[in-house]
Design a protein that fits this description.
four-stranded mixed β-sheet; 10 helices
Length: about 260
């Protein structure tokens, strides 16, 4: 199974041509994408969907993430989960605790510290003098801006976080949390946003390496297809890390009781 990326343009449409999605755009022959081969869909910009196509994705548990043209998250479509909702039940129990915010905050900071230290190690910095999250981010931004303008760097960050959000949505669906927004958890705990924040540490170095391979004209040549290739080159590792974080969260919740 593979993700389906739809880069919206005027006139792009998605319809159901059972058992596939039929994607059409002006000046291009329609393409069929069998539903059984799609892991998730990421639709950027203006894409017109038929109701039947959206329902087909929902019924098969295929998450659809809608992004604005600049990469910001617009909306999600979650389908029926085929997994038990054990993690959801434990998260609901956590939110019943008066100290849930402090407890969860401690867990999240520990996970962020772990991700940050892993990056510091890859950068070959002194682990005993590992910088804070803010300091490390500033350091990375300064390095990236040696090769690209601040505006391009901000675009890269927003766009890649949007792609990460789509992957996280799929992981949450696999663990039975596809209906999380409807069940009210997101009013107090935005687990998807937090997972994106943790996984984003794994993309700083690939982005820096990508930028450093170019020259002063690289800003103009950096396109969406290049970003998607970069992301997909690391998606298997990101998926592994994401599942590991969710497993740790489940284990921590179980110990917390």
């Amino acid at each position: 199974m593979k993700p389906l990326y739809l880069n919206g343009r005027t006139g792009m449409t998605v319809a159901l041509d059972e058992p596939a999605l039929r994607v059409a755009a002006p000046g291009r022959a329609p393409t069929l994408y069998p539903l059984q081969r799609i892991s998730r869909v990421i639709a950027s910009g203006s894409v017109e969907w038929s109701t039947a196509a959206l329902l087909a994705c929902a019924e098969r548990g295929i998450t659809v993430t809608f992004l604005h043209a600049d990469g910001a998250i617009h909306a999600y479509l979650f389908g029926e989960s085929t997994q038990r909702a054990g993690l959801f039940c434990r998260l609901r129990d956590l939110l019943d605790r008066p100290d849930w915010r402090e407890r969860y905050g401690d867990w999240y900071r520990a996970m962020e510290s772990h991700a940050r230290r892993a990056l510091v190690k890859r950068l070959d910095l002194d682990l005993d003098k590992a910088p804070s999250a803010a300091r490390l981010t500033a350091l990375l931004d300064a390095h990236k801006q040696r090769y690209a303008s601040p505006g391009i760097c901000r675009f890269l960050d927003k766009r890649l976080r949007g792609l990460l959000a789509a992957l996280v949505a799929e992981l949450l669906a696999e663990t039975g949390l596809a209906a999380e927004p409807a069940r009210g958890l997101s009013d107090r705990l935005d687990l998807g946003r937090d997972l994106v924040g943790l996984l984003a540490w794994n993309l700083h170095l690939p982005v820096l390496e990508l930028l450093s391979r170019g020259d002063q004209g690289h800003d103009q040549r950096l396109d969406d297809a290049e970003l998607v290739r970069l992301f997909e080159a690391h998606s298997a590792k990101l998926r592994q890390v994401g599942r590991g974080v969710l497993n740790r969260l489940h284990g921590w919740l179980a110990e917390l009781g």
